[in-house]
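Quick one - first record:
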Amino acid sequence: MAFTITKAVIPAAGLGTRFLPATKAMPKEMLPVVDKPAIQYVVEEAVAAGLTDVLMITGRNKNALENHFDHVGELEATLEKKGDTERLRQVNFSTDLADMHYVRQGNPLGLGHAVLRAKMHVGNEPFAVLLGDDIIDQRDVLLSRMIEEQVRRGASVVALLEVDPAQTHMYGIATVEPTETEDVVRITGLVEKPAQGEAPSNLAIIGRYVLTPEVFRVLENTKPGKGGEIQLTDALQTMADAPEATGGVFGVVFRGRRYDTGDRVDYIKAIVQLAVDREDLGPELRPWLKEFADKLD
């Protein structure tokens, strides 16, 4: 049976230790990228692809995530009284984006465990998983393309990105076979963060997945792997090995703009890259950047 995919799961229980002390009291997902928290870009991407039912997997000290997507009566009343309609529109936009739900992960047992916590909410239908560290430029198509392939093939679909071979040890890496479609490959193997020089390809899994509900059954039987955590990569490997039972796993190779906000330097790059393309910021920022760069030794 073909389902209309409407549900998105966003794991957001991590501690954000790479951004301490900024994340001591604030969730890393709330760090601003220009003038919006990183998590809002991810929710906006889900909604743009037709996913209006969003479940966040959270943890302790993540109340700011729920507050951001909720009404703030005092702030709204103040802006309305001042006649600041543009800021009021921006505040209400995040509130009205999607039907938001939240569940705590509890024990931090890995991405696979976080996805498994969505089982009761998702039920027996395909769904998307979006990781908050990856921001996909809204001008480039990825998630809707993945949904299209999931519906067409009845399989799970992951997003793949060609990376520098020297960086493959930082990602889950796929072994693939070509299909009849240029940007789609069949995944035959997956390895989480292979040792330097041992990666089977340079196709890295990035933080977008469209999964069939069979993944829950597989995750329930997946033993802790690397780092003592239940790895989603291990579950996907099991599904790739049994296509007749699970539909298999395919990959959409993405060649658009992706911004990594999980690393401090890449986070700064993401802010600059997005800001220079903004009509309200770019005209002033671009010449300053050129002048600044000319002064660098």
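second record:
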Amino acid sequence: MGIISPGFGGRRRADDGRLPPGQYLTEDFPVLTAGPTEFVGTDRWELSVVTETGTEHRWSWADLMALPAETPTVDIHCVTKWTKLDTTWTGVSLDVLLEDVETAADYVMAECYGGYTTNLPLDDLLDGKAWIVHKFGGEDLPARHGGPARLLVPHLYFWKSAKWLRGLRMMDQDEPGFWETAGYHTYGDPWREQRYWGD
């Protein structure tokens, strides 16, 4: 007969079922990067979107700030197994940014200052699922967390929310980015524990 600790059954989970399998809750905001922190001033920051046909769209920092902003509160999940609940960001929805971009592509490569890349299906950036954020908790996004602007795709593992974003390249076919080439899962759904190839 097994031993059951008092209170083991019937206790409400602190995360209300929002914690994906294999994850633990943290109050901190760990800093993890593939290389050195990039420091990009807003005076030289620029974002480009290049379609599969080579058509290029560009936004300066002032252009980005002129777009309507949203303030989503979302849970974020790192592939290293931490989850942080109820994080609040401010930024521009990809629905707004890509509204006038004509593309038939199915995939996007996020490209960053410093050379980091990560691939995503275009559908995962639309319909209110992704933002280019420039504030965290009401404050300007610090460089250690991807400032001045990063991608935020909270329904996927956090490596897909690329720091120091400088561009989105539309692709007809999927191709792996930095961590995906090194063995991380090409999609990265935390609820399916898609951490590595074969997961």
